Amino acid sequence: MAFFKKKAKFIMPCEGEIIDLASVNDAVFSSGTMGPGFAITPIKGILYAPANASIDAIFPTKHAIGMTLQDGVEVLLHIGIDTVNLKGEGFSSYVHNGSKVKQGDKLVEFDLPFLLSKDIDPTIMVLFTNKKQVEVQNNSYNEKSEININIQ
Predict the structure, then answer these.
(1) Structural domain boundaries of the chain?
(2) Distance (Å, rounded) from C-alpha 149 to C-alpha 16?
(3) Of 28, 65, 111, 147, which sees the most CB atoms within 10 A?
C-alpha cells in the first residue's frame, strides 16, 4: 500500500475525460519516462492553469508548458501527440516564460478540429516531473472543476 505525502488542490486544466497515462498512444508518456501523471481526452481546445504557478517554459510551438506550483511541484502540460510537428500552427498562447498564473487562468487555446483534421491525437498529458507517484481519484469532465490528486 502506498502512502501519499500530500493531496493537491488541482483543477481540470481543460474539459474532457481523465484517462490513465498508461493508455496514451506514445511510449514516452505511457511508460512514465517523463514522470507520473494522467491524461485527458479533451472536448474543448482551451487549457487553463490547474493551480497557482510560475511558468518555467513554454515551448516555441506552444504545445507544451512547464510550470512550478507554489508548493514546488513541477508540472508539464503537453497538448497532443506529435503536435510539435505543427510548429505552432493551431495554437495561441496567453502566457510567456516567467509569467505568474492563478488557478483557472487561460494558458493556451488550441484548434481541436484542426488537430483532428490532421489525424493528430489531441490527448493532453499532465505530468508531475519531480514526483514519484500520482493518484487521481475522479474522472471529472468539466473544465476548472476540482480534482483530487494524491502526490508522492
Answers:
(1) 6-151
(2) 17
(3) 65
Cell of 25: 498512444
pTM score, whole prediction: 0.88
**Catalytic center residues:** 78
Phi, psi angle pair for 138, to nearest 5°: -150, 165
Question: How far is the C-alpha of 15 from the C-alpha of 44, rounded, in Å?
Answer: 6
- Pairwise CA distance, residues 55 & 89, whole Å: 21
For residue 51, the SS3 value is coil
**H-helix or E-strand containing 113?**
helix 112-117
Q: Which range, of 6-10, 65-69, 78-82, averages the lowest pLDDT? A: 6-10
Task: Classify domain 6-151 by CATH number.
Answer: 2.70.70.10
Q: Are 9 and 146 in contact (CB under 8 A)?
A: yes
Pairing status of strand 46-48 against strand 146-151: unpaired
Grid cell, residue 108, equals: 493556451
Q: Write down the residue that cell numbers 493531496 correspond to.
A: 7
Whether the Cβ atoms of residue 94 and residue 104 lie closer than 8 Å to each other: no
Average pLDDT of the segment spanning 7-13: 77
